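Researcher: Next entry in the queue.
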Amino acid sequence: MPRSTAAAKSDYCAFSGSARRGIAGPEIGVNSPAPEWRRADRGYEVGMERVRFDGWIAGVGMSAGPRLVVGHWVDSPFGAVTDVMVEHRDGRRVLLAPDPELGRFIAETYSFDEVRVVPTAMRRAGNAWTVTAGGLTLRFETGGRGALGGLLRLVPAPLAGRLSWVRLVDRPARLLRGVRTYGSAGNGRREWYAARDLHRITAASGELDGTDLGRLTVLDPPVRFGFGSAPRSPALVRVTTTVELPAPAG
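Model: Structure for this entry, 250 residues:
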């Protein structure tokens, strides 16, 4: 799996998800042709069955209506990238991705009404995080871990990443409305989340396509991108996401 540069691997770095190709924003359809990330000449093993995304997921609700889930991946098959999933008050689901291949991969794993390829970036200064993605600017601040974050930190990383452990903790995780750690994804895929830390998000603000997002609120109702939602209470979760792909035909 390709690795990002040493600087880009840092959880505290700033990077642009559009830097690889300088993409400026053509929209791609959810039913676009199959992605080419399996190709050996791109550095990926032909027929690989599992891909992993290691980084952070932030979930926030905003009083103006949108509910947002940000994936900040410091290590992934697509390099260091940030993507944003937005569900509007009317239920319209939009993906903001920095690269057509990443956009297709996510759209084939989750469900969206629209996919946009736009420049994205994530920057951190202490406990203040800023996300930009096309017409979106989202700023949020993190607080302490709380009891759940403390418990996640106690689980050894090798154990937290095992599928057997993830399936075991899926049942108690369901006590949090909408949250799942394991389930079926689109196109015959399976997906699971190995959470290793959690910080509360204490404040958020921003703008989307020229409209103020308002103040921070809960993710209610749960977002409908996949089999599970981010926690109802706004949080930043340290996580490794694994997507298992069906065996290629032939």
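Model: The chain has one domain: 6-244.
Researcher: Noted, moving on.
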